[in-house]
Amino acid sequence: MEQIIVNGVVLAANYALIALGLTLIFGILSFLNFAHGQMYMLGGFVVYYVYAIFGMNYFVALLACALTLFVIGVAFETLFFRRVLRITTREENSMLLAVGTALLLENLALTLFGEKQRGVPPVVTGVYQIFGAYLPASRLLVLVLSALLVIGLLLFVQYTKPGRAMRAVAQDKEVTLLMGVNVGRISALGFGIGAALAGLAGGLLVTTSAINSGIGTAISIKAFIMIMIGGAGVVAGAILGGIVLGFTEAIGYALIPGSVTYLLIFVGLIIFLIIRPQGIMGKPWG
Amino acid sequence: MSATSRLITTVALAVGAAAIGLAGPATAQDNVLKVGVLGVMSGPAASWGLVNRYSAEATAQMYNEQGGVEIDGEKYQIEIVSIDDKNDPKLAVSGAERLIHQEGINYIIGPNVDTTAASIVPVVEAGGAINIPYAFSKQLYTPPRSNSVLGMIASYQAAPIIYEYLQEERGAATVSFIARNESDPLNQRDEGVAAAQELGLEVVSSEDTYEPGTTDFFPVMSKVVSANPDLIVLSGVAPADAPLLIRTARELGYQGILSTETAQDIGILNEVAGEFADGFISVGGASTPEIRSDYMEEFIERYNEVAGEWNDEAGTKVYALEMILMTLQQAGNDALENIEAYKAAMDGFSVKNPFLEEDQQLTYVGTNYFDQKRQIGVPMVVNEVQGGEFKTLFVGSVE
Amino acid sequence: MRQTMPASDLGWGQLGLTAARLAGLALLALVYLVALPVWFAGSNYILGVLTNASILSFISLGVWVTFAIGRINISQGAFALIGGYTAAILSTRHGVSFWLCLPLAGLVAAAVGTIIGIAILRLRGVYFAMITLSLTEAVRLAFLNGGAFTQGASGIVNIPRPDALEIFGLTIIPAFRGADPLPYYFLAATLLILGLLAVWRLTTSRLGWVFRSMRQNEELAASIGINVAKYRVIAYGFSCFLGGVGGAFFAAFHQNIYPATYSVTDSVNFMLYCFLGGLDFVFGPVVGAFLLVISFELLHDLQQYQALIYGILMISCILWLPNGILSLTFRRGQAPEGEEEAAAPVPDPSGKPRGSPT
Amino acid sequence: MSLLEVQQLTRRFGGLVAVNGVDFAVNEGEILAVIGPNGAGKSTLFKLITAFLRPSSGRVVFQGEVISALKPHVVARKGVVRTFQETTIFREMTALQNVVVAHHLRTRASSLGIFFNFPTARADEAGFRESAAEILDYLGLGAVKDAQARGLPHGYLRALGIALAMAAEPKVLLLDEPFSGMNPEETDRAVRMVQGIRDRGVTVLLVEHDMSAVMRISDRIVVLNFGTKIAEGTPAQIRQNDAVIEAYLGSEDEAL
Fold first, then answer.
1. CATH code linked to domain B155-262
2. Is the peptide bond before B111 cis (omega within 30 degrees of 0)?
3. For residue B60, how many C-alpha atoms fall within 13 Å in the half-sphere facing its CB?
4. Nearest to D88 among C7, C220, C341 (CB)
5. How many CB atoms lie within 10 A of CB C174?
């Protein structure tokens, strides 16, 4: 029982972190970033090379990973996303761009990094026991760092100028334009931060779960589930979604046959969305 | 010109042009022996197909530098044509047709999973080709099927032997199974469960599975470990997941034995699981240091040049091309075009295993399982990880 | 071409069958049904690829129809899987003829789709996309856990090839033998042409215009008395029917079906074909599917760079032609189905610059 | 006798009450205007009557039948048809196509009939095309019927919106702010248009901001403020009504 709770907490933190970047981008650009999982994967590889291969400090690696993905995100927004949105006749077409990018990044990674699974030596070692439940230091570290990131982002969007601008853009582009905010810059910034968060998720989880160039799609799907539960485009919703999925999985695996668990999760999700299309805290129709 | 007519011509031109472009190269010229590799070379399972390809390319290079493979006194340069099927039956079928009909290839290595392997059966039969799948489904190899040759030890062959060893040597009495929630691993789990019950092991749990792309195995492993069995079997585990499962189990305080019936990679095990991997039991090919021959050493070097880095999965996959070539040498050069000659040669085929130090015969096996010799007699090398290296526990074999 | 039509023409005839267009299509059909098979008669491979492309187009046509009502549909893989299993179970266990399985598979898929559709079609935009994506996963897992009925992980193998189609003792279609690809090619081609005609008719008839009106503004459509819910379900059910039939074809073509035969990736691909061809053109999914399938095959020679180049090609396609390859064939600023704005400048009643409220 | 009755209609959004126990009746063949300052609950009332919103309590009765629980398209079929504020039309169609699609309610052919283009379907289409052309001409859109709707100037779009509603053969036509954002000439044209529609035997219920226009065309006026009805009567009566004057002076814009 204790173990289930601990598992749930750790999982919830991981998942919230995975969903964060996706929901941020969706909130600001109402663009579903299919390449989210691939960005997660890239983040993992950056940490793998900087930390495991070049043997630098883990936190340096995390920083490098955040910066790399931030640049990728900004570049994507300015070079690809804007262009397509400008010349497209139907906004659905942005979905095509999303899928195309995911495919490109994945194949790029396969060519650059190869097909092998990659993991990094543990940053911290040892296993703690809390009320009879096992909690390895490595997972505790991930837990703490994700929690910090989540809080950090919440503070950022609440209290900083660009953060508030992002919230404004998410609420209503036109009005924000009138308010004289440079929506273009905010969008780019938002995309960059979203990508960086995806990368950081990968960079953190590579220490406990390793990565390979093909892991992206599976991650994206998980992230989609979570933002759908929590309500797309709402940062708090993503965290909530992560908590819900994390505990459902932890409890499900503990009580029912594994193969049925995810079937039930998906069926549950569908029914939930039918009843409440905007998720727990989302605004209708995104 | 009206919009629609323009549209129609565009479509027509596009299709026509592309289709003609497909016509591709002519069929095999003389003194070149083309061998196909068909498998998944992208996506999460990319390593399965890529290792097949790199192994084949490495072996081919080694032969070609000797002037090619000699069959009936004539030397043939070996050319490897590989195709990525993305584990998609549609692509596997067109891939097989391309290899057989465009490239004029009669010998194909792969594919990697039941879905694709089953889908190309009609194609290889109609096209008169032999293929060497790395999928375990028995239907592929039992009559009326006769064109597919299992390339490695199947889980249902390794399982009983490994379990029996653990039962007798390590006193394992209770066992739990955990599998990835996909066709091949689930089938292998079911076969493992059957084997365990056969041996009178108590199966504690077998219902636990995990999804592809799981980032945290704690929840599912917690359940498995909580029953504290003597042995936990990772059924059909991908090299990608094995180290994570091992590490998780140990971190949850599991003290018992962990084993699998599939080939693993020591590099990944060390990278991800570190010292936790110690005592992990898996099936290897010819790659474990203390049994490999100089020829195998040479192959490993070559493989590293081709692939950039060694992968122990190649330890079992090294056999496919070598086997094809050696069988062709015995069957004679009419087997190049006519696989019946090849099939005929399979029954009596026997040579010294070039990859092993000790003197051991390499033959086609599988009669006990498929009622015909439709499996490469890869020695079943059972390893245990010790201090970041595979140590051979024992070498078994399949009849 | 609109200029050549009487001013009162609705332009609904755009894809209707006028003589000139009929000729063009006949030519295309001729190339497709006669020239290609004759040209490549020797090559199982090319015929196989064309067969794949044809049925993939056929399945994607359904997705295209759901795009017509303004829904991004990522569930088509699920219905291909349902169709495939229907055919597999009927033929292997109850010895039902393939020629009966084919439509039945479509109907079962359509029935399931209709029931689910009633519930989920209220969702729009990304939310609908996501719920359909979840549906694909749910259906896959359901078949994986289906126990004896679906034979779970071991899938259903040795599905019989299409048998002879006989009516009153006389053989309409001989049984398919061996892996001879020609019969499959012709079956696929016929299906695609029928599918195209159906979708074509659907979109050019007033139903198509009802769909279009719903895509452009569901509230307005409801306000003029269109039963939006009903037509949404019709469109989705139709889409699922195509998916089911396609799945049944592949089941018989590959003679096996596994839960993994169609995954999210397939559902996404069906959607991609529509996008790449162009959402505004009935031919969109066909062009998209043929181009993607064939270009992937052509790139085999690039070996390890195949996947990469494939990705780069796709991205550049998206960047230069986000409205689909077929948008090339129409001038900029043209509306769906290639209608053109009236040549005559519009007199402004207030004599003031456009859209300047006082 | 009254064709449409609004009875004790109330709609709450969370805490605030947008429409509060509103009562009034629309008589056959009249032009009734509902006016009120911003946020008086006009649009909510409008949505409630056409069943685009469900009332929290109270009901809407049309020809002795409760319609507030039905689906919007059913209400339209019964003959209560609305237009939308501003320029809500099918942008990717020509004006003519817009109106022909709007004839949907008159369809006699079944979906299959339409699919296989049976004679009934062809007859429908021919008929729709004729009547659509007629409606467009009547509303002065004849010249632009083959133009893409999205390209039409503002004044025309409003008229096209009304044409769409007319195509549905309404018994009661609800116009949502038909005169907003129009200059005097445009307003004159619009006023004549609405009167013409009434003369064709269509009862008109309009929600409007622009007092001058309302005063000119309405037979009766209902005034809302903060969701409650504060006055009802002829334009003359309303002009004298203190509560109304109070409400409007209290609110910034409209002067009488």
1. 3.40.50.2300
2. yes
3. 20
4. C220
5. 12
CA nearest neighbour of B232 among B213, B255, B216: B255
* Structural contact between residues A39 and A21, judged by C-beta atoms closer than 8 angstroms: yes
Cβ neighbours of B56 in C, within 8 Å: none
CATH superfamily of B32-152+292-378: Response regulator (3.40.50.2300)
What is the per-residue DSSP string for B308-359? SS--TTHHHHTHHHHHHHHHHHHH-GGGGT-HHHHHHHHHH-EEE-TTBSS-
Give yes or no for a contact between B397 and B377, defined as CB atoms under 8 angstroms apart.
yes
Contact between A114 and A213 (Cβ < 8 Å): yes
Which ranges in chain D are annotated with CATH 3.40.50.300? 1-79+172-188+195-256
Say how many domains are in chain C: 1
Nearest CA in chain C to A101: C315
| ipTM confidence score | 0.89
DSSP assignments along C92-137, one per residue: HHH---HHHHHHHHHHHHHHHHHHHHHHHTT--HHHHHHHHHHHHH
- Residues 6+ away with beta carbon under 8 Å from A25: A31, A33, A36, A190, A191, A194, A195
Q: How far apart are CA A276 and CA B12, in angstroms?
A: 47
Residue A266: list chain C partners with CB under 8 A.
134-135, 137-138, 141
| Fold for the domain defined by D1-79+172-188+195-256 | Rossmann fold (3.40.50)
SS3 B109: strand
In a domain, C25, yes or no: no
Q: What is the CA radius of gyration of chain C?
A: 22
8-state DSSP, C303:
G
Interface touch C131/A104, C-beta < 8 Å: no
pTM across the whole model = 0.89
Pairing between strand B281-284 and A133-136?
unpaired
Q: What is the pLDDT along chain C (358 residues), one digit of tens a residue?
A: 333 333 334 555 444 456 777 888 888 888 888 888 888 887 888 888 999 999 999 999 999 999 999 999 999 999 999 999 999 999 999 999 999 999 999 999 999 999 999 999 999 888 899 999 999 999 999 999 888 898 888 889 889 989 888 877 777 788 887 667 889 999 999 999 999 999 999 988 889 999 999 999 999 999 999 999 999 999 999 999 999 999 999 999 988 999 989 999 999 999 999 999 989 889 999 999 999 999 888 888 776 777 788 888 888 888 888 888 888 875 444 444 433 333 333 444 433 333 333 3
B64 in Cβ contact with B56 (< 8 Å): no
Q: Are A44 and A118 in contact (CB under 8 A)?
A: yes
CA distance A65 to chain B (A): 19
How many other CB atoms sit within 10 Å of the CB of residue B59?
26
Q: Does C148 touch chain D (CB under 8 A)?
A: no
The 10 Å Cβ neighbour count of residue C333 is 10
Range of the domain at C68: 39-167+176-263
Strand partners of residue B363: B350
Name which of A104, A221, A225, A234 to mutate to probe chain C: the one with the most chain C Cβ atoms within 10 A of its Cβ.
A104
Residue C285 near residue B11, CB atoms below 8 Å: no
- Nearest CB to C224 within list D104, D111, D144: D104
The label of the residue with tokens 């991997």 reads: B277
A286·C123 Cβ contact <8 A: no
Sequential DSSP letters for B264-310: --HHHIIIIIGGGGTT-EEEE-S-SGGGB-HHHHHHHHHHHHHHSS-
Residues 70-89 of chain A with CB under 8 A from chain C are: 80, 83-84, 87-89
Beta-bridged to residue B108, according to DSSP, are B36, B131
